[in-house]
Amino acid sequence: MCLPVKKTSFSRGQSVEVSVKEDGFHGSYFKAKVVSQLDNGLYVIKYDTLVNDHNEPQFLTETVCPKELHPLPLVIFVRRFLVN
């Protein structure tokens, strides 16, 4: 059963990170976009880099629990970097 654990909501088209818990991917995060939010609270997402298993040139789309979604980390621009 998939229950929301936080009150973060994501909007359609928003870029997110998806936490994957499947064998071989446990602890991995993949960038995706929110396609829609379903009435039951789940989200339909489309990965930016993962493709279907059917050798089709289409990116993988799946339905995930809200607790598997995270906002993208902040991008920090650095002008100078010094090493002592």
Automatic annotation (TrEMBL):
Residues 8-77 form the Agenet domain. InterPro entries: Agenet-like_dom, Agenet_dom_plant. It comes from the Eukaryota. It holds the Pfam family Agenet. Signal peptide: none annotated. This is Agenet domain-containing protein. It comes from Acacia crassicarpa (northern wattle).
